[in-house]
Write a structure and sequence with these properties.
By secondary structure, the protein is of the alpha+beta class. 37% of the residues lie in helices and 27% in strands. The protein has one domain: minor pseudopilin epsh fold.
Length: 180
């Protein structure tokens, strides 16, 4: 059996005929330039409409992520103070829009940055306002912490207030929607 007969088949040639019609040189089956331009214009309009909506939702996700990171760092600092039997503190820098965790060093009263992932400086996005009543929150050996409030505000629309209640593991997050 020859290659041509295997490929084209031994049937009545239907495949061969459809193959010829599909690749016919004078075939008029194609999109015109006008049709292609219309499709490009429609797709462009859809992109222009949807991109701003997605950008706003990504910003809100980053805002919520900042609040979550802050809350996790509070709970982590409380746990570490109990486990390692030394004071930890969470530093909050309003002007810089940053917060980070430190532990008490070998010299009593002096604090050093925590090593590893949890010791890095967390920056909040520029479109989020950070307000706090203290510059630092100390976590004590028994798991208690200083009380206080830290407010995260997203474009005057949403406000999350993180309250440190002083007892171990008790951090309250209050969500508010500001109507304009």
């Amino acid at each position: 059996m020859s290659f041509r007969k295997c490929f084209m088949g031994s049937s009545s040639g239907r495949f061969r005929e459809s193959f010829k019609v599909f690749f016919k040189k004078d075939s008029k089956k194609a999109f015109t330039l006008i049709e292609l331009l219309i499709v490009v214009v429609i797709v462009s309009i859809l992109v222009v409409i949807t991109v701003p909506r997605f950008r706003g939702s990504f910003e809100f996700i980053r805002f919520e992520n900042s609040v979550r990171n802050f809350t996790k760092l509070v709970r982590y600092g409380q746990d570490l103070a109990v486990i390692y039997r030394r004071h930890y503190r969470l530093k909050v820098e309003e002007r810089e829009g940053a917060f980070w965790l430190e532990h008490e060093g070998k010299t009593k009263g002096r604090f050093e940055k925590v090593s590893g992932k949890w010791g890095k400086k967390y920056f909040i996005p520029s479109f989020v306002d950070l307000k706090t009543d203290k510059k630092e929150y100390v976590f004590y050996l028994d798991g208690r912490s200083q009380t206080g409030e830290v407010e995260f505000e997203f474009r005057d629309r949403y406000t999350y207030t993180v309250k440190l209640l002083g007892t171990r593991g008790h951090v309250e997050i209050i969500e508010e929607t500001n109507r304009q």
